[in-house]
Design goal:
This protein is an alpha/beta fold. The chain is built from 15 helices and ten strands. The strands form two sheets. Strands 1-9-7-8-6-2-3-4 form an eight-stranded mixed beta sheet, with helices on both faces. Strands 5-10 form a two-stranded parallel sheet.
Length: 417
Amino acid sequence: MLDGVWVASLSLVPDFYQTGSITTLPMLRERQGIRLDADLYEIRESRPMALILPCLSLELEHKGLDDVVRELGKVNYLTDIAVSIAAPDRNTYLKVAHKFNDISTQSGKPPQFVWVDGPGVLSLVRELEREGFDLGQAGKALSVWLAMGCLLLEPPVKVVATHDCDIKDYDRDLLARLLYPAAHPSLDYTFVKGYYPRFGDFLYGRVTRLLVFPLLKALKEVLPHNSLLEFMNSFRYPLAGECSMKFDFISRSNISRGWGVEISTLGEVFERVDVEEVCQVDLGSNYDHRHRELSPQNPNDGLHKMAIDVCKELFAMILGRSVEGTLISHVREAYIRQAYGSIYRYRDLAAFNDLSFDVALEKETIGIFSRALFRAGQDLSENRRSELKPANWKQIMVKLPNFLGKFGQTIAAEAPR
């Protein structure tokens, strides 16, 4: 109570309503981090946990990395930490790695590092491509995949979590909430997806709000009884990159590369995990990190590129690898109707929360995403997808039994000194 008036906490949304086919774990009580930390510390030996941190050299210019590093320095239950760094040269790579000097595992071991753009790592990537495995273009998906290789070099972990390194005002409670449902034996989920609202002075999350949500509704119009669509529609933030999972599951999964990685991961979860073993967890009242440009004129950059990759992955999963142009036209018409209909809901949401809102910009964004949708359909109908198999660590270790050893030697040779 403040001056005789009850004030609701902005960091707490008491929402216990369950929708869709998966379990939702909202944060009903505040200051749970201490309890979660203590519980995770108690099970650190029986349920070894690891953290994967994909990091860009651009993070040197942003406050988020310092926030993440400071908070992770207080975590005492991780068995392993793997940091994959995308940097154009070795000096930049070393500067980024130096930021992690104060982070260690529960046994005092420093993180493992992999230089994504290092000459040795790039040579191994080309070797895998010659053997018929697809690692895709450089990006977050490749960085996470390489970091998984680091974890395979160490004593086995049970559960692994991953999140970005550019989260502003990061709190270690986020990691505890992300890991707990998969790591703690009282819950024991196989796959956990984070969710959160994204806003500042205005609403963020444009690809999720203005592409994924209306596109899923449009696909449901065309395919009203599709169980995969029902599953995808259960997630409050399908494009969230923050997740935790059993390590055995993810190391055997065929995850596509590029910006469609989060959608591809959900497709693998749908195929390989019982729905009772999947949940989504509330990661906090707001989440802010570095924002990408819309890039309206360049389909190979920014959110424009991301939209194409996301649509391509969704279409391949739900409509099949060979998509008829007439079907894409029907989906596009339904998408535009759904997307335009959502604008005024978001306008009212922004007004209710005293946020700025630009209707014209929202409409322009939908137009760009509509073109991205059409481009994705064209690419699929013309079979412009790689014939290579997505790289699966377990398959690679069977086909190329010496590869993991070479990978370990390479990252050791390129490790920070």
